[in-house]
Amino acid sequence: MIEMLNELVNNRTVLMAGIWYAQPITFLLLVLFFIKSSRDERGRAIIGRASVIAIIVFIVIVNFFAKISDSIPINYDTVAFCVQWIYDIVVTVEVVAILIYRKIQ
Q: Is residue 19 within 8 Å of residue 82, measured between CB atoms?
């Protein structure tokens, strides 16, 4: 398991995929933050709830990275991969949570 994870975090192709994935998902998050319906009370409550979920996911993923960091060699590619994919996952969770909460209300 650790060997497979080590190969994954040192794969430049997966790192580049994460970099290209971050651009549209970040743009989508910014659009969701600044559309008119996000500026009223209901919109701010939705963004607040989604942000709480995203922070919880961030804490879990960072603690997972800290736990496995003693099992894999740390270099530039590993750190870049982990930071990029932590960002991608947290932003994706935020966007999905906002969209789900908007659909519910």
A: no
